[in-house]
Amino acid sequence: MPKRVETADDVLIVGATRHPLRDVYHILLRLSWTRLLGSIAIIFLVLNATFALGYASVGGVVGVQNFRDAFFFRVHTNGNRWLRCHVPR
């Protein structure tokens, strides 16, 4: 006999196991605007900081002397802007 899983929204899922990332889109739809935009901003900043750490530690960009330069290089290239003084090696 299949498992029966009831969710908080009174939706009955028959035969499926629980999975935390199954319906991310539905979770995002249920968030308030403040939490949604805050979550997107945090993810954006964390991803850019991660790449900036990589750039700063490897030295993969000409003209980058510190983490701040590497972070803003990543933000600018993420936004498809021209690289002006920073060029990848």
Question: Can you describe what's shown?
Answer:
The chain is built from 3 helices and 4 strands, in the order E-E-H-H-E-H-E. With 89 residues, the protein is mainly alpha-helical. The chain has one domain: Helix Hairpins (Orthogonal Bundle). The strands form 2 sheets. The chain has a two-stranded antiparallel sheet. The chain is elongated and about 60 Å long.
Which structural class fits the helix and strand makeup? Answer: mainly alpha
- Spatial order of the strands forming the largest sheet: 1-2
| SSE pattern | EEHHEHE
Mean pLDDT: 77
What is the helix tally? 3
Number of domains: 1
Helical fraction:
40-55%
Based on the model shown, name its key terms.
89 residues, Helix Hairpins, two-stranded antiparallel ribbon, 3 helices, 51% helix
Write a brief caption for the model.
This protein has 89 residues and is mostly helical.
SSE diagram, text form:
Blueprint: E1 4-6, E2 12-14, H1 24-30, H2 33-58, E3 61-62, H3 67-78, E4 87-88
Antiparallel strand pairs: 1-2, 3-4
